Amino acid sequence: MEYSCLSFLGLDGILLVEKTRGEVDVFDSDIKENLGQASDEESDHDDSEDSDFREWQSDGSQEFDCLSLDEDDNLVFRQGRLWSRHRDGNVSLAVGDIFTSKEEFLNVMKDYCVQRGISLRKIKNTKSRYTQRCINNDCSFKIHATVLVNKCTWMIRSLNEGHKCPNTQFNKYASSRWVATKLLDEFKDNPNMDKGIMQKTLMRRFGVAVPDYTCWRARKLMKNVVEGRHDEGYKVLPNYMRVFKEKNPDSLCFINWKDEGPGRNPSFKRWPYKGILITAMGLDGNNGQYPLTYGVAPREDEEEWSFFLHGSATALDAREDSSKYVIISDRHKGIIKALKNVMSQVARRICVLYFYKNFASLYPGAWFHCFFYIAANAYSKFVFKKAMDKIKDKDIYAFHWLRDNEPLEHWARFKFDQTLKVNDNTNNFVESFNNVIVKHRGKPTYTMLEEIRKLIGARFDKRFQISADWDGKVTPFMEKKLKKVELESRNCYNLVPARRGEFDVREGSINFTVKLAYHYCDYQRWQVSAISCKHAARCILSLNHKLDDYYCQWFNVESYRKLYDGIIHPIPDSCFWGRGSELPTLDPPFELRERGRPEKHKTRESRLPIPPQLSTIQLSGTKRCKKCKQLGHNSLTCGQPRDEYDRL
Questions:
Q1: What is each CA distance from 16 to 149, 206, 277, 295, 315, in whole angstroms?
Q2: Averaged pLDDT of the chain
Q3: Three-class SS of residue 4?
Q4: For residue 357, what is the enclosing H or E element?
Q5: Where is the MULE transposase domain (predicted)?
């Protein structure tokens, strides 16, 4: 079964995206099954005697209110005593100790053997008797326990504690499940606990040394209990969508699936699945990150981006007319094709950081770096032309590369659409948001989506409360900008008014015309960014007006408060959801992550042809031949004929 889950956080709500493949199956949230599947790869001692991990969390000290004892059993309890753990965590056994079940007795025996360094040899282990002794035949340690008449309670009948064998640090009973049981509380407080901390804690508390691989397996078991299993995260998505719509009726949430038929290798469920997190961010009036859309997809291609952008456009009401929006991205082909199919009228820009990396791969150096950013960030066509002429004089091929590979409307500020009032040409704010949620990206799908929802909801509430203390007309970011522009306006002189808000302003040897009524200046910064430039500020101040009287409504404090006035309603725990009548249970995708360390996602740089003047150069570095002691080649190529460019 293939399905897609889409959820969106726009001005009124949240939109989450999920796209993967799964199979219809019956959902079972029993944690015991989770732990059993997660530990299949480990050969634990006597798995049939291992109890449910959640029953271990109290270290064997379980409640006994559910026991129903008759008079004969009460006589037995008068002769013995209910076993209890010491406050310091040590385990001691004695004849007459009573345990509520065999599972509790076996768990206590594991703790006892680990603390005393005992390895047992089985003599009897049935439903009614348990007899074991030390694995060393010369040792006199032996324990015998039997079940009582109620067929549930167990009692130690005899115990010989004469254990005199050397105590070893390693113990076979210190399995990954045992380690997970003992360290679960610490792991909840410190999810980043590494194997070093785990080994030190176990050595201090129990005096046992645990191998690295046991610690990693125990950590995986604890993560499954705290965060949930990856395959379980996929199964609850349809029900999660239903509950999300009920709690947030103003939000949009989509899901789509396709039946692929039965048949699946169950071993696939042991490993994490492939997937990437896709985010789309905006900027608020205070230059802060505003999450628009986020979602999960199995891969990054045209199909996934089209699905993602379709949901985004639906939530923003941009399916018919997307001309009032700007999208800044890298040069990924999937994004470019999806934008043409879904939002063909949107203004597209590329991040100049990615664009410069493509450019610098062919034309490196500080000189090209300086003039590239002068050309990219110039508001005036005159400044842009000057920078490009410098690049042309330096290298004609670099000039043609910048002119031909991308339209100027995608990366040069002076060509940006002035009706949009957006001067950003990088997507750094998206990367900043990804760094905030990086600790949640490795969690199961449902858990990750919930953590991101909580993070965004808390951010909305915090920013709304902070804005309540603002007294000015504009946001603090805008106030800083206006103060900086006011200081820069002192460099403008020879101001000549021409009535009706029009002026001639000179800066250096250049004359600029300003029209306050139309928010116009020849420098073009005011038209592109909606923030008055220093030339316009000089004219505004000459009229004894305030700069914040000439600002865009997007930077208004009231607009900022309205933006964050909405609420993303909390979602209850999955145990309170109930079950939808027609909702299926989805299995995880077929595509799995390969074993080992994943490959790094390198910057996607276009494979462009190398200019002729670079293709004739062979970079030799400082290689020195062992035979002739000359630079530029090695002993394997020594003496071979070369061309005029010293190439083989």
A1: 57, 45, 10, 5, 11
A2: 79
A3: strand
A4: helix 352-360
A5: 268-358
Count, in order, helices (H) and strands (E) of the chain: 23, 17
What is the maximal distance between C-alpha atoms in the chain? 112
Residue 430: burial class (beta carbons within 10 Å; 0-12, 13-18, 19+): middle
| CB-CB contact of 437 with 452 (8 Å) | yes
Count of Cβ atoms closer than 10 Å to residue 150 Cβ? 13
For residue 226, what is the enclosing H or E element? helix 212-226
The CA-based angle 112-85-188, given to 5 degrees, is 90
Neighbours of 65 (CB within 10 A): 5
Q: Is 64 a residue whose pLDDT tops 50?
A: no
Which ranges constitute the DSSP H helices of 575-627?
612-615
Angle at 308 between CA 264 and CA 280, to 5 degrees: 125
151: tokens are 């067929």
Q: Could you tell me how many residues make up the chain?
A: 648
Pairwise CA distance, residues 474 & 212, whole Å = 56
Confidence of residue 263 (pLDDT cuts 50, 70, 90): very low
Closest to 141 (Cα-Cα) out of 108, 112, 105: 112
Residue with tokens 């040590």: 90
Which tokens hold the place of 562?
């309205």
Among 18-32, 36-50, 69-83, 540-554, the range scoring the smallest mean pLDDT is: 18-32
How many CB atoms are located within 10 Å of the residue 200 CB?
A: 10
Q: Are strands 326-329 and 347-350 parallel, antiparallel or unpaired?
A: parallel
Cβ atoms within 10 A of the Cβ of 548, count?
16
Q: Which one is predicted more confidently, 486 or 74?
A: 486
Scan for tokens 């928010």, then name that residue. Answer: 519
List residues bridging with 283 in a β-sheet: 289
DSSP H or E segment with residue 456: helix 445-467
Mean pLDDT of 600-622: 48
**Lookup: tokens for 489:** 């306006």
Least confident of 39-53, 387-401, 417-431: 39-53
- 104 burial (CB, 10 Å; 0-12 / 13-18 / 19+) is buried
For the stretch 12-26, what's the b/e string if a residue is b when 16 or more beta carbons lie within 10 angstroms of its beta carbon?
ebbbbbbbbbbbbee
636-643, Cβ contacts within 8 angstroms, sequence gap of 24 or more: none
Helix (H, G, I), strand (E, B), or coil: what is residue 185? helix
User: Which residue type sits at 530?
Assistant: A
Q: Give 451: exposed, middle or buried? Use CB within 10 Å, 0-12, 13-18, 19+.
A: middle
> Which of left, alpha, beta for 561 (phi over 0: left; psi -120 to 50: alpha)?
alpha
State mean pLDDT over 494-521.
Answer: 91
